[in-house]
Amino acid sequence: NLNITARNLLAKEQADGVEAELHVVGKKGITYFKRRADLAGKHEHFGDKPTYADVNVLAEDFIRRYSKGEIDRVTIVYQKFYSAGRQFPVAEVLLPLDGLSADGGEGDAEKPAAKPESANYLFSPEPEGLMKELLPAYFKTTLFSNFLQAVVGEHLARMVAMKNATDASNKLIKSLTRQYNRARQTQITNEISELMGGVEALK
After folding, report:
1. For residue 129, what is the domain's CATH number?
2. Whether the Cβ atoms of residue 102 and residue 128 lie closer than 8 Å to each other
3. What residues make up the domain containing 10?
4. What is the chain's mean pLDDT, rounded?
5. DSSP codes, 115-174
6. In whole angstroms, what separates CA 125 from the centre of its chain?
7. Is 162 a domain residue?
8. Which residues are paired to 80 by β-bridges?
């Protein structure tokens, strides 16, 4: 269950001494956590059709706070879509971006530097400026993708539930139809037997 996964992650972070804050998207999640945790953010306006513009506002806020050092990590818990029959709750770290840094280099300082090539290349814009543009864009699109996967999973769950209900209804209709036909056949047989008995009595 998605809410339980998020709750367990929050409990683990708090047990490790992390000052974690919880932002919840959707009425069901807000209702679930309202009496179970302190909510730093409640976002009910996304609905089942989140737009990039709406998600971008949320992403910009996280990027701004991360850049200022107010937060050092952003983890999202969502229903990851694998296939029509496979969606599972997962927790993924979106910030910091693993292995990348804003200066355009690798995030791992232990990795030896590559040998310079003989050819010279001109970058426009400069790698540092390019990465400062690309990293926020990557974060925003990844966050939006997570939102879309969650929505797809929810719609598929509804479709499966509706299909199961339809199949169950069809089975019930067939069962009742068979029972009706048997009862009707028994009634007709009894009526014929009574008529035959009356005919025999008149002879």
Report:
1. 3.40.1380.10
2. yes
3. 2-104+116-156
4. 82
5. PPPSS----SS-HHHHHHHHHHHHHHHHHHHHHHHHHHHHHHHHHHHHHHHHHHHHHHHH
6. 37
7. no
8. 88
74-83 and 86-95 strand pairing? antiparallel
What's the Rg (C-alpha) of the chain?
Answer: 31
Band of residue 190 on the pLDDT scale cut at 50, 70, 90: confident
pLDDT at 155: 77
Apex 152 CA angle, 146 and 153, nearest 5 = 90
Asked whether residue 174 is domain-assigned, the answer is no
Examine the pLDDT at 113 and tell me if it is beyond 60: no
Domain count, the chain: 1
* Verdict on whether the full-model pTM lies above 0.85: no
Contact 94/74 with Cβ under 8 angstroms?
Answer: yes
* Domain-located, residue 178: no
- The confidence score (pLDDT) of residue 117 equals 54
Place of tokens 């770290």: 93
